Amino acid sequence: MPELVFFSGTMDCGKSTLALQIEHNRSARGLQGMIFTRDDRAGEGKLSSRLGLVTDAVEAAEGFDLYAHLVETLSQGGRCDYVIADEAQFLAPEQIDQLARVVDDLELDVFAFGITTDFRSKLFPGSQRLVELADRIEVLQVEALCWCGARATHNARTVGGRMVVEGAQVVVGDVDASSDIGYEVLCRRHHRRRMTAASARAAALSPDVLPIDAGGVRGSAV
């Protein structure tokens, strides 16, 4: 039976890489897929991974009807054996409904990849709808790590290396705290404390926390 499968995880855990691997494996067997994406880091109409792999995709912009697009493709003699939807957290709930309809009415497997929560630890509307509708949810096993070495479970937005918890839900960036607006994966403890790698380094270098060299301190004679 065809399924709607939601592959979820934090940033930097290999979601897009897995999407590209699924595409490669199935196309190598002679199958043809339809790839949708939205706001990919590589630009419009692209599915890319941080390993440098990239392929063309259909940009599912706001108001785009994924189901209607597939029906039109098939009615014009095109072929589609499966569907991949990357950056699915950016899709509107009604677009997730359209993906479910692709599974139920067109009997195609749909593989959706996305982040579950935003930088405020709030569910993306698209991800919430996927949790509600998916036949199966797979949490990726390639664990992203917080700067402290613990398993990263939360996504943080940074501005100049400093974590922020206010702003628009969707701002396209990358896991690069050196840029003006970036993202970083953190464990829950450091997300709660708003402590990024940059702020942790700054704290370690602060004179207030530097160890005192007892040998360099003169004591008075008794």
Automatic annotation (TrEMBL):
Gene3D superfamilies, sorted: 3.30.60.20, P-loop containing nucleotide triphosphate hydrolases
Keywords assigned by UniProt, alphabetized: ATP-binding, Cytoplasm, DNA synthesis, Kinase, Nucleotide-binding, Transferase
Catalyzed chemical reaction(s): thymidine + ATP = dTMP + ADP + H(+)
Domain of life assignment: Bacteria
GO molecular function: thymidine kinase activity
UniProt-listed InterPro entries: P-loop_NTPase, Thymidine_kinase
Record text on subunit structure and interactions: Homotetramer.
NCBIfam families from the UniProt entry: PRK04296.1-2 (NF003297)
Annotated localization: Cytoplasm
Family affiliation: Belongs to the thymidine kinase family.
UniProt keyword annotation of Kinase present: yes
Active-site positions on this chain: E87 (proton acceptor)
Predominant cellular place of this UniProt entry's protein: cytoplasm
Name listed for the protein in its UniProt record: Thymidine kinase
Binding residues for ATP: G9, T10, M11, D12, C13, G14, K15, S16, D86, E87, A88, Q89
Keyword Cytoplasm: yes
Entry EC number(s): 2.7.1.21
Gene that encodes it: tdk
